[in-house]
Amino acid sequence: MGKRYKTDFFDGIKIVGSKIFVEHTKKALRLLKKKTPGTYKTLVLKHLRCIRYARVSQVNDAGEFRVSNITAYPDLAWYASSIVHEAYHIELGARGLVDSGTSAELKCIKVQIRAGLRIGLSNKWIEHLKTRDGTHWKSSTRG
Ligand SMILES: [Zn+2]
Question: How far out from the chain centre does Cα 64 lie?
C-alpha cells in the first residue's frame, strides 16, 4: 500500500491499485459495458462504488469490492463475471433478501453464468461455476 498505488475512475466507479490492476479492471468493466449493457447498468453501476486491490477478495454493503490476484488475473472474462457476481450480492441485500450463505451464492452464480455467457467466458470457467454447489463461501475467501 504505497506510492505505487494509483486511483482512477471508470463511469464513476473508483478503482484503486497498481497501474496494471487499474488498467485490467477498466478492461473488465469495458467488456461488461459493451457485451452486457443491461447488467452493467442495473447491477454493476448501481451497486459498485469502488474496486480496490487487496490480498483477499471481499465485497461490502457500501459497494466496495476488494479484489485479490486469484479473482483478477486468471482471465479477463472471469474477472468481469466475478464483478457481476459480487454486485448481485449487494442487489440481494438491497432487495431485503438474504445476501450471503448457500442459497444466495447459488443465485449469484446463476447471474454470473448468464453474464459470463454474454461476455465470452470460456467453457472451462462456466463448467467450474456449474460444479459449485454454493458452499464455497464457507472457505476462507468469499467469492
Ligand atoms: Zn458469492
Answer: 10
| Residue 1 falls inside a structural domain | no
Domains of the chain: total: 1
CA distances from 54 to 9, 16, 25, 69 (A): 17, 9, 13, 8
Residue 137: the pLDDT is 62
Residue 103 domain flag: yes
Q: How far is the CA of 3 from the centre of ligand 1 (A)?
A: 31
49-82 pLDDT tens trace: 999 999 999 898 899 999 999 999 989 999 999 9
Asked if the structure places residue 134 within a domain, the reply is yes
Distance (angstroms) between ligand 1 centre and the Cα of 9 equals 24
Domain span at residue 24? Answer: 6-138
- Number of C-alpha atoms within 13 angstroms, CB side, residue 135? 2
CA of 85 relative to ligand 1 center, distance in Å? 6
* 143 part of a folded domain: no
Collect the ranges in the chain with pLDDT lower than 50: none
